[in-house]
Amino acid sequence: MKLVDVGVGRTVKVEQNSAHDYLKERFLALGLTKGADVEVLRKGPKNNLTVYRIRGAMIALRNEESKFIEVL
Predict the structure, then answer these.
(1) Which residues contact 21 (CB under 8 A, 6 or more apart)?
(2) N or C: which end of the chain has fewer CB within 10 A?
(3) How far apart are CA 72 and CA 15, in angstroms?
(4) Could you please report the per-residue DSSP string of 57-71?
(5) 2-48 per-position pLDDT tens digit
(6) Which CATH code fits 3-71?
(7) What are phi and psi of 5, to 5 degrees?
């Protein structure tokens, strides 16, 4: 399952980061590493932006970014 498909209120674990180049480095810097817990806090307007809690920080990602993160 992709992170973009997870519903609000659920907590999942990161399985794989399939992004490339700068986006992969950005995800790693944000703490999106294998085994990290990610909680979906809320969806933004038009469901294009989602706020996640990752390692205690609130991070907003666009759908085109969060589709690269595979979760369990």
Answers:
(1) none
(2) C
(3) 6
(4) EEEEEEHHHHTTEEE
(5) 999 999 999 999 999 999 999 999 999 999 999 999 999 999 888 89
(6) 2.30.30.90
(7) -90, -5
Alpha carbon distance 29, 23 (integer Å): 10
- Compute the distance between CA of residue 61 and CA of residue 72 in angstroms, rounded to an integer: 18
The answer to whether 24 and 17 have CB atoms below 8 angstroms apart is yes
Amino acid letter, residue 48? N
Q: Which amino acid is at 18?
A: S
Q: And the tokens for 67?
A: 């589709």
Nearest CA to 17 out of 51, 60, 64, 68 is that of: 68
Structural tokens at position 6: 């997870």
Residues 6+ apart with CB under 8 A from 26: 19
- Give residue limits of the domains in the chain: 3-71
pTM: 0.91
Rg (CA), the chain: 11
